[in-house]
Amino acid sequence: MNQNDLLNMRYATVQEARTEMSQLLEARPANYSLDAPLYNDPHMFRVDVEEVFQKEWLFVGMTSEIPNRGDYFTVEIAQNPVLIVRDADGSVNAFHNTCRHRGSRVCLEHRGKVANLVCPYHQWTYDLKGNLLYAGTEMGDSFDKSQHGLKKAHCKTAGGFIFISLGKEEPQGDFDEFLATLEEYMAPYDVENTKLAVESNMYEKANWKLVIENNRECYHCAGNHPELLNTILEWDDTNDPRAPQDFLDHYAEQAAKWDEEGIPHEHRSFGPGKRNRIVRMPLKKGTKVMTIDGEAGCKKMLGNIKNPELGSMRILHLPNSWNHMQSDHFIVFRVLPISAQESMVTTKWFVHKDAVEGVDYDPARLRQVWDATNDQDRILGEENQLGINSVGYQPGPYSETFEFGIMNFLEWYTDTIQKNLKK
């Protein structure tokens, strides 16, 4: 626990924080930011972990990161280590990365390939479906291997995206409807025939909700993101109240081209606060993708795509991901909480699996725009956090034309916390 966490600890117990959180959310005006404890108190953060990150569906990665049998990657979700692995029949499985013997992590590397899952502590061995195969010869005749397999996490895939839930029960709602739409909208990109080109992890000294809030509005873009604004249009979609007629005309021209290619583009959203949302948006006229000059980032286009000016299909999944799908590469973002005032933002760039680094694409050029944008957002988030920590902070109003995306996010957050607190 860092110094800021200690200074902002207001509640004696997590239970006290749970009660106060419910009351604060109940009383909060829908168009105002949250009270300070919801952004900086360690016990409130613990409630977020328990009621959101240990119960809801979370984005963790893409299926093309683990294309073959035994390929795996690991992720840590607020001190919960998780293992994602491809098994022999091609299924993607998620397990708690903790041995059923004495709890040691089984897979220690971020990425790897294994024949079986072997705990390095005492060599307990599991197959790729989590079944315990070997526990040595010292466990006694009454020991039942079948009762000591790795503990599974709920896992679903669609359109190349991998989602997991750490809850005891699978979250309910319209998630499967979103997954069916995601499968349809991602089909042109043929994710299974892509590969991870480059990855970055950025640590931001800000509460996870501030990271998401910053992403949910472009009110700050003109003053902070020159590289991004070389190509991106700040309008959220065709229903954006700020959208001018020339944008609507540009959208209509691009939509006609998408229709010719059979590329889906109708805005679809699901759940309270538009928790899961897909919208295809054109980029600025004369630009192809989100590179510094708007020109192609990779010589090989994805899947069956023929139009290099496909724009960006934006995919939102609350609580922890936003994504940009383009003609020649796509970018996925994942946010994970670390403490009340620290988060990790992971960015991954994917290209066609046959693309050759240094010939078809340059990783430094691929990541140039979003490296700059991520760092700019990090500074904004950290300054936001420092201001909220002040005794002078009080919740302020959102702009309903520029910041409606934040209001949607907090609608979902409030609904989710209140629902889960009652269980």
Automatic annotation (TrEMBL):
The entry's keywords: 2Fe-2S, Iron, Iron-sulfur, Metal-binding, Oxidoreductase
Domain called Rieske: residue spans: 57-164
InterPro entries: Rieske_2Fe-2S (IPR017941), Rieske_2Fe-2S_sf (IPR036922), Ring_hydroxy_dOase_asu_C_dom (IPR015879), Rng_hydr_dOase-A (IPR001663)
PROSITE patterns: RIESKE
Cofactor: Fe cation
GO MF annotation terms: 2 iron, 2 sulfur cluster binding; iron ion binding; oxidoreductase activity
Pfam families: Rieske, Ring_hydroxyl_A
Protein name: Rieske (2Fe-2S) protein
Organism listed in the record: Marinomonas piezotolerans
